[in-house]
Design brief:
The protein is mostly helical. Helices cover about 50% and strands about 5% of the residues. The relative contact order is 0.13. It binds s-citryldethia Coenzyme A. S-citryldethia Coenzyme A binds next to loops.
Amino acid sequence: MKLADNKATLSFSNGSPSVEMPVYQGSVGPDVVDIRKLYAQTGMFTYDPGFLSTAACQSAITYIDGDKGELLYRGYPIEQLATNCDFMETCHLLLYGNLPNAAGKAEFTKRVSNHTMVNEQMQFFLRGFRRDAHPMAIMTGLVGALSAFYHDSTDINNPEHRDISAIRLIAKMPTLVAMAYKYSVGQPFMYPKNHLSYAGNFMHMMFATPCAEYVVNPVIERALDRIFVLHADHEQNASTSTVRLCGSSGTNPFAAIAAGVACLWGPAHGGANEACLNMLEDIQKMGGISKVGQFMEQVKDKNSGVKLMGFGHRVYKNYDPRAKLMQETCKEVLAALGLENDPLFKLAMALEKIALEDEYFVSRKLYPNVDFYSGIVQRAIGIPVGLFTAVFALARTVGWIAQLNEMIGDPEYKIGRPRQLFTGSVRRDVLPIAKR
Ligand code: SDX
């Protein structure tokens, strides 16, 4: 970042001395007012719950222009990456800042493939869960447990440890997600097959059984790979910020990523794809497209607490570019599977059309986000609703670890420790219980 030819002056109506603060600018996007000395100079904090106007860090990984609906990974538009690259190239880009050439891609892919197995002890963690445990409960536990097997590489301040942990986490997430699924259906775990692609291997571990040969459907393989690319990173979203804050204490990468998994689970965040599919199924049960108007009235009634899941975004005040690509992927997969008339897809398209013409949504700049169509395509592939957010976590792991490594690699980083505006009781003395 560089100093802008601009300064911010904070003045107070009560005559307190005004304070000057430097303004910094990045390569693109909003400038920032550097308030780091504000408390020392004024004895005051800024107040920004939800971080609507707060840049918590500087980063060179992902840039979002919410007004334009633009998403860049290391400067490359998501539309170009989703159509010209695959997830392994995208992982290399996010981690190291550049797209690999053919040799670099082959080397990186081989490194990842060589770490796809998990320690045999990991399977015993699953036995502690009920078979109907939510996959995100299982994933939160399994990812945190990984740290117990790599004592040789959990020093987050060691660049080599950070790199091998990144490879291990990217490589093992599909194995763990597939194990969570197999455990839920009472089928044996399938070991990874390293000759398959990243997405193909995930499909094999999910849908193959020891009883028959499993053939990867290339259309589904490509669709899954694109879903991974679209979910790989997204600037300082809630789960990435969680990973950064957790990692800032110096804890090991597996623990920090486990914190990201836990945060992503929420329906306002990564859990929205599951919530959106359930919402579509509920409307379908109510009567489908004929009941959309009634449902929309509920959504617009503040007291109902009903939201149009998969719509709206803190940053995008235009169409989420990932939603457009996800819709295209949806159409491709449904056509490949002969499901062009999938009622939920038709319902989603009808909901989107109505919402984009409704003043409530238009005035609030609410558009479909990445979660609106992702559930429909995952369901068509055969992934159960409860596993959607675990698939999101699988894909987002590379973004989380890239952001964590960027933070730790920044000489300026400190442990994150926000302050507060205290509104509770001022000092008072404890009375003996007889006098309370
Ligand atoms: C992800 O941050 C990221 O980058 C996240 C993510 C990523 O890749 O990491 O993009 C992934 O989490 C996508 C978002 C998935 N969540 C959902 O689809 C859940 C439904 N969406 C909402 O919960 C909401 O839109 C949020 C949480 C996504 C954003 O919330 P904000 O930015 O805090 O906005 P807000 O709640 O203040 O909403 C502004 C207004 C409010 O109405 P008013 O008080 O102004 O009258 O819009 C309304 C909200 O009630 N609103 C909605 C709505 N989303 C916002 N009303 C109905 N349905 C919705 N979905």
